[in-house]
Amino acid sequence: MSTGVSISIADRIAALKTRLASVIELVRNARAAAGAHAVTMERLESLERASAHNAQTAQGAHIATTERLGLLERASVHNAQTAQGAYIATTERLELLERASVHNAQAVEGARTATMDRLELLERTVDEHRRQIQVRAVMDWIAQASLRTNPLVSVLLPTRNRRELLTRAIGSVQAQTYPHWELLIVDDASTDDTPGFLAGLDVRGVRCFRALGNGPCAARNVALAHARGELIAYLDDDNTMHMEWLKSIVWGFEQQPENNVIYGAFVVDDTARIDRKGRGDLPCLCFRPYDHHAVSVSNIADMGCIAHRAGLPEAHFDETLLEMGDWDLFLRLTRDAPPLGLPAIACFYSTDAPGRLTHGPTFVADAVAVRDKNRR
């Protein structure tokens, strides 16, 4: 029994030792856990302090970043405003430059136009002076020239109620340096003393006829029907013929026998009156170069400047025209071949005679009719 009790006590002691060892181990483990916990807590506190520090640092960085962003935004707004201001200023300067450019372009164009106008005027003036010099030279030459032929030249002179002007017109034909001419005067039913004057007219080479009062074109057709000359010339009763004109006609046809039509120069006493701009201009020489198209737009030759060979198919007058018979005749005579522009004075054109037909009541209608039927 004592042996069993001894075993029991020894077992119990061993068990207690074992439990004590376990307790000691538990204590050790508890201490280790407590140490680990303490370390962990310290680390947690350190992490918390680090986190708080980082949070403060991050907050500071955030605040700094926000402030910098605000500064950048303000700088951006300022730069944008500055850029907008610069853009507006640039746009205004561009607009100013554009307006200045347009103004300068207009000024340059105006100056160019004015220069071209002046050049054209100078060219026309030079051409006119050249033609005037040529007229003088040709007339001087013709005055001393000897003619090879002696054709009869028929001068056609219609008249109506201008008895006081007839003597002057007839005298200009009588004064011709070329002697071989005839003058056919057609009285277009005058109601003044023209018929009596012509009945008593006894001048070599002058023949008188009576028309029915149908206008100057019809009267000229009467004269054409009775003309005997190889060459035909014309004169209006309020104008006078240059003393060398008939000789100039013969000389011109001698120089260029292939031509059938001649037109010459004429001197207008007052261009202001003929242009309806008043009066008072000095006499002016008129001699334009022939242009096939331009002559269909406006007349370049007075009736007294035109001469042609007799018997031409178009050598007749349109009796429906009162004012434009010379232009219509000239257009038809030159339709197929240009005339010879002879730089010699044919007649002196008066603008102050009473009862002139130029710019009369049929002027516009006659001009339209002539253009329409002679379009080229």
Structure description:
- This protein has helices at residues 2-144, 163-174, 194-199, 216-226, 245-255, 271-274, 325-333, 363-373; strands spanning 153-159, 181-187, 206-210, 231-234, 240-241, 261-268, 284-286, 306-309, 340-349.
- The chain contains eight helices and nine strands.
- The chain has two domains: 1-134; 145-373, Spore Coat Polysaccharide Biosynthesis Protein SpsA, Chain A (Alpha-Beta Complex), CATH 3.90.550.10.
- The relative contact order is 0.09.
- Strands 1, 2, 3, 4, 5, 6, 7, 8 and 9 form a nine-stranded mixed beta sheet that branches.
- By secondary structure, it is an alpha/beta fold.
- Helix 2 links the parallel strand 1 and strand 2.
Helix content: 55-70%
Number of structural units classed as domains? 2
Average predicted confidence as pLDDT: 89
Spans where pLDDT lies below 50 across 5 or more residues: none
At the fourth level of CATH, the homologous superfamily of the largest domain is Spore Coat Polysaccharide Biosynthesis Protein SpsA, Chain A
Q: What overall form do the CA principal axes indicate?
A: rod-shaped
CATH class of the largest domain: Alpha Beta
What series of H and E elements makes up the topology?
A: HEHEHEHEEHEHEEHEH
Strand content: 5-15%
Structural class: alpha/beta
What fold name goes in the CATH topology slot of the largest domain?
Spore Coat Polysaccharide Biosynthesis Protein SpsA, Chain A
Our Rg estimate from Cα atoms comes to: 60 Å
Number of strands: 9
Number of helices: 8
